Amino acid sequence: LVSRDNHPERSTIRVGGVPIGPGTVTLIAGPCAVETPQQTLEAAEMAKAAGATLLRGGAYKPRTSPYAFQGLGEAGLRILADVREQTGLPIVTEVVDAHDVELVASYADMLQIGTRNAQNFALLQAVGGVGKPVMLKRGMNATIEEWLMAAEYIAQRGNLDIVLCERGIRTFETATRNTLDVSAVPVAQRLSHLPVIVDPSHSGGRRDLVLPLTRAAIAVGADGVIIDVHPHPEQALCDGPQALVDGDLDELARVIREFPPLVGRT
Ligand code: PEP
C-alpha cells in the first residue's frame, strides 16, 4: 500500500489543511516536551513567527530513563489544544501506548510514532484505525525496508495519511546522538509514495548541528523538517541541548525559504 509500484505519484498529506509533500518544505517546530502553558505558548509563538505551519510538542515522552520527565499526559494535551486555539497552529504529538490512541487522537491533528515504538505493531495498527494523519519516525535500528513495513501496518488499517520521518540511526559514531541517514530520504521517496521529512534535532542531539543538518535534509529533497525550540533551553525538562532559541529558528526558516524544493524530481 505504501509502495510506489502501485502508486507512482508521490502523495501529499494534509494536516489541518497544511500540506506535506512534493513541492513544499514544511516547517514543523515546537518544544520537545510540553512543560507548562507559558513555555508551550512561547515556543509556539517562536515557531509561528519564524514561519512554521505546524506545532510539535510531546505530552507523552518515551524517555530512555524511567527517572527522566515522562511528560504531562492528558494535561499536556489540553495545553496543546489551548495553544492551537491561540496560535491557529495544528498540533503534532506523540502517542506511546495503544490504549491512549483514541484519547490522543481526540486532541491531535497528527499522531507521532517515535523511534522507540516504530515496530510496536499493536500501536501501529491502533493509529491506523483512528482516522488521523500519522508521522512515523524511523526506528533507530530499522532498515528502510523495516521502516516501510511499519508504515504498511498503519496503511493496512485503512489510513494512508502517513508521513515518514528520518531521525537518525544508531551507528558506531558517538560525536552525535544518532547519525542522520541523508540517503534514506531519496531512497524512501523512490520506494514509497509517502512524504519523507527529517528531524535534525533528534538526529544530532546538538543545537549547533540543527542548521547544517537542515541544509542537508533540504538538499536531498526532504518534504519538511521537524525542529525542537524552547524559550529557555537551559531550563528544559527534555533535550534542552538540541533546542533552538529565537534567532536560530528565524535563520533556519530563511534557509528553507531560500532553498527551493526539488520540484519535478521522480
Ligand atoms: C520526539 O520527537 O519527541 C522524539 C522523542 O523523537 P524520537 O522518537 O525520534 O527520539
Helix-and-strand structural type: alpha/beta
Which regions contain 5 or more consecutive residues with pLDDT less than 50?
A: none
Overall shape: globular
Ions, cofactors, ligands: which are bound? phosphoenolpyruvate
* Percent of sequence in beta strands: 5-15%
List the helices and strands and how they pair.
Elements: E1 13-15, E2 18-20, E3 26-30, H1 37-50, E4 54-56, H2 74-87, E5 91-94, H3 101-107, E6 110-113, H4 121-128, E7 134-137, H5 144-156, E8 162-166, H6 184-191, E9 196-198, H7 200-204, H8 207-219, E10 224-228, H9 246-258
Parallel strand pairs: 3-4, 3-10, 4-5, 5-6, 6-7, 7-8, 8-9
Antiparallel strand pairs: 1-2
Bound molecules: phosphoenolpyruvate.
Keywords:
266 residues, alpha/beta, 36% helix, binds phosphoenolpyruvate, 3-deoxy-7-phosphoheptulonate synthase activity
Summarize the structure.
It comes from Streptosporangium brasiliense. Residues 17-258 form the DAHP synthetase I/KDSA domain. This protein is α/β, with parallel strands linked by helices and 266 residues long.
How would you characterize the overall build of this protein?
The chain is α/β, with parallel strands linked by helices and 266 residues long. Helices cover 36% and strands 15% of the residues. Helix 1 crosses helix 2 (74-87), helix 1 (37-50) runs parallel beside helix 9 and helix 8 (207-219) runs parallel beside helix 9. The longest helix has 14 residues, at 37-50. The mean pLDDT is 96. Bound molecules: phosphoenolpyruvate. The site of phosphoenolpyruvate (PEP) has 9 residues, from loops.
